[in-house]
Amino acid sequence: MLKIKLRPNGKIHQRSFRIVVAKEHSKMDGKFIANLGFYTPQSKTLQINKDEMQKWIKNGAQLTIGVEKLLNPDKFPNKKKVKKAKV
């Protein structure tokens, strides 16, 4: 099965991610089939080739949770932390 997933690259504290199509069980930084775009968390830059992504989704590729959260942030609301009362 093919997945559209985030592939990390760059230094540890200057991480950026490529959005790629790869096999479901491939290594995180292993081989990939197609490069669809990139995401940089420091500047919150997201660039995706939407035509290519739609083509791969039609061919059966599925989005991982990380990519889904980037594309549809309203679908995953932030959880509020509950403070515990001191006894």
From TrEMBL:
Gene3D superfamilies: 3.30.1320.10
Pfam family, one: Ribosomal_S16
Keywords, comma-separated and alphabetical: Ribonucleoprotein, Ribosomal protein
Domain of life: Bacteria
Signal peptide: none
GO BP, sorted A to Z: translation
GO molecular function annotation: structural constituent of ribosome
GO cellular component: cytoplasm; small ribosomal subunit
Family: Belongs to the bacterial ribosomal protein bS16 family.
Designated name of the protein: Small ribosomal subunit protein bS16
Organism: Candidatus Shapirobacteria bacterium CG2_30_35_20
Gene name of the encoded protein: rpsP
